[in-house]
Amino acid sequence: MLRSERLLLYTPLIGLDVLAPAAAASDAEAQRWLGSRADELVQHEDTREILLSMRADDDLSWFEARDRLTMMRKLENHADGIVRLTAVHLADGKYAGATNVRLESGEIGGWLAPGYRRQGLGVELFRAAVQLGHRHLGLKVVRAGAEPTNSASRGALTTVGFTPATGPARFTLGDGREVDTCWYQHVQDPTSHCGAGAAHGS
What we know:
Blueprint: E1 2-3, E2 7-10, H1 16-24, H2 28-34, H3 45-53, H4 65-75, E3 82-89, E4 95-102, E5 108-112, H5 121-136, E6 141-146, H6 151-160, E7 163-165, E8 170-172, E9 178-180, E10 182-187, H7 195-201
Antiparallel strand pairs: 1-2, 2-3, 3-4, 4-5, 6-10, 7-10, 8-9
Helix pairs in contact: 1-3, 5-6
């Protein structure tokens, strides 16, 4: 579990911790940059609105069994080499987004729900990802890619201390789109190494 000034970040514990962050990334503005696969999205706008109106400690009993099964399948997706953190806004207890680190490459990602964008929270989100990578996963180098026109993401990365790095000039997103990409890295000797398993339970 990590805490910034305005966010509480933790490994998903229940289905809502997975589905609400997915809803936070499923709108058209987010997908302009993320390009996720269709099965990673919450497709219906009204469902997204319901999920993003919920608090992290709300009851899920109103979900149908099919929806609970979908969420549990997403929760089981920890064996794909990605460590994920759900972000909850401390002031209102609602889901603000998520961040992740790929164990093999050290690449981080992250996104914010529509109501929490353009407030400087991307800096807090990426700072948490850096802390996760260096302190909890024992990675010396954490990397991130961003489209050259994504000034918000690039600005947040720079503020956190990422510096330009080499990498492929083109990157294929999950939805198949190929985009221009500039790369950044954050280098720091790990202060501890609790491993991926420990990070899941931290």
